[in-house]
Amino acid sequence: MDFRNARARQPEIVRSVQKDAKYSSELSEDLSDILRLTGPRNWIKYNSLTKLLAEISYHGFASLNNLQTLGEEYTGIIQVDSVYKQIPSRLLQLSAIILEFGGDALYLKVLQKLGKYVEEHEDIVPEAKKKIKALILFMQVSPSYIKALHKSLFYLRSDKYQISKRLTGINYVLIRHWVQPEFSLYGYKILGIVTFMQVTFSAALAAFDTWKEHKRKQYELSKSMKHFVRKEFHTKANESRDAPQCILCLEPRMAPSLTPCGHLFCWNCILDWLDERDECPLCRETLKKSQVIQLQNYS
Asked: How many beta carbons lie within 10 A of that of residue 113, not counting itself?
């Protein structure tokens, strides 16, 4: 049997999800109360898992027994496969449940492991590490925007409300669609447009903030580099000013060279001087180029 003409609409799907969320929340509270009886230590350690256990138990029980959830029964809808022919297999339904309620945690865990691997892997060059880390950071914050965009698409097209249903191809159809009351869906379409605009604006604002932070870091780096260069310049200038000077060029001595009479000059300076006259520039003693000794490791 083909159920394409009996597709569930936004009102039935939304009410079904809301009803199921209400019942699973009550089950989560009951499990939390039971866990509290085992002691405060266990309650603090495992209480965060009660919601996940409640969701999987609630939806898993219905799927394993080929039953509707209470929310689906309340709104008169049922799950069918991607071609609208039959009820999805238990494995497909359980996969959708795990993706819906544990997919986010699994996704973030994989990204965390990937980031740790990139950080510790020495074969990856620093520039590549930087780009991969930026990509991982983007992937960590992207699910919220993807979910919101997906929800806006659902409001506009009455398609699939949950991403897990889209990934597994599961659809909702009305059991008795011929007796269902008519609803105006224009409000949902407007909500879809508003949701899309809100997500787009939020994403653009986040991108602008990221760009500003990037520019700020570039400015700080440039400022620190300028400060470093300026400091190095002053340091070298002070060193040059404090270094012994050559009497010929009046600059810090380069390749200090010693004459037999005990005077120090730059190597090039004293050789240029001796090209003009054969005497020491200071004491006027007779001096030849062969008598000048260049000093090593002397400052």
From this structure: 10
